[in-house]
Write a structure and sequence with these properties.
The strands form 2 sheets. The chain has a 7-stranded mixed sheet with strand order 1-4-2-5-6-8-9, with helices on both faces. The chain has a two-stranded antiparallel ribbon with strand order 3-7. Helix 2 (50-64) packs across helix 3 (76-87) and helix 5 (121-134) packs antiparallel against helix 6. With 261 residues, it is an alpha/beta fold. Strand 5, helix 3 (76-87) and strand 6 (92-98) form a beta-alpha-beta unit. It is 47% helix and 17% strand. The protein is globular and about 50 Å long. It has a single domain, classed as Rossmann fold.
Length: 261
């Protein structure tokens, strides 16, 4: 089972973590775009627990480089990046969190509320049907359902979406179903925010202003916890800045600048 892709030339001291959990290859377009300038590790994770994903990532990075990396996490990957950096601080020189989920449970309901406002009644009914089917179907059928979920959430989570090559993305519903409840419980218990307080390396947070996962609330949680970080909000931008018509260029300019620091 291939669990790492390398982009660009050595040294490989940047790693990009996908969302989901279970959306392997989601960051492939970002890694590909930046590989003309940087050596990038793209871990493809299969572990079915939070603890397993942390240790899987340690093994993957250790296999490629002995250098401390700049760890870039998108969505779920931002949480994993936080958890990993707190556990293995010597392995990470900088954190970049893109579209990070809110860090406190009291804000979580706002994500669903915004998403529902952006769906038509027909689409809401389709979403309810998909959720019902997800509980009954086989793993193979669940993968097909996850693709349909993705199309609905692309609408709710985007401002002006561009067509992006997702041919390298490999969805693993079984990973999501195992890992996400654990991640949600970490947030609910307050342990997730507690872990963030342990991080001492440089931290940059990048968020779209139209992302249902509110960047303002992530910023508020980090600030209230006394954490030092840089925050960049991209206008007319949803959850995936690299797939946004009005933000893509600014996003990649910002990423190149951050990775050169």
């Amino acid at each position: 089972m291939k669990d790492i892709r390398l982009h660009g030339d050595a040294p490989y001291d940047i790693a990009m973590l996908h969302g989901g959990p279970g959306a392997n290859g989601e960051m492939y377009p970002v890694a590909l775009e930046l590989s003309d300038q940087f050596g990038i590790i793209e871990p493809l994770q299969h572990a079915n627990s939070v603890e397993g994903q942390i240790e899987e990532l340690r093994e993957q990075l250790s296999r490629v480089t002995a250098r401390a990396v700049c760890l870039i996490g998108f969505s779920w990957g931002a949480w994993l990046a936080i958890l990993f950096t707190a556990r293995y601080p010597a392995m990470v020189k900088k954190l970049i969190l893109i579209g990070c989920g809110v860090l406190e449970a009291k804000y979580a309901a706002e994500i669903d509320a915004v998403r529902m406002q952006r769906l038509s009644e027909t689409e809401k009914n389709e979403l309810e049907s998909l959720i019902s089917l997800l509980k009954k179907n086989s793993d193979k059928e669940k993968k097909e359902l996850f693709v349909k979920f993705g199309k609905l959430f692309s609408k709710t989570d985007s401002y002006k979406q561009l067509d992006v090559d997702n041919s390298k993305m490999d969805l693993h519903p079984e990973v999501f179903e195992s890992v996400w409840p654990e991640g949600s419980e970490l947030r609910k218990s307050g342990r997730l925010l507690g872990v963030v307080k342990k991080i001492k390396c440089s931290m940059t947070v990048i968020h779209g202003d139209s992302d249902p996962h509110s960047g303002a609330l992530v910023k508020q949680s980090l600030s209230s916890a006394g954490i030092k970080f840089s925050f960049f909000e991209l206008s007319r931008c949803g959850h995936k800045p690299w797939a946004e018509k009005y933000a893509k260029e600014k996003f990649f300019d910002l990423m190149r600048k951050e990775l050169c620091q």
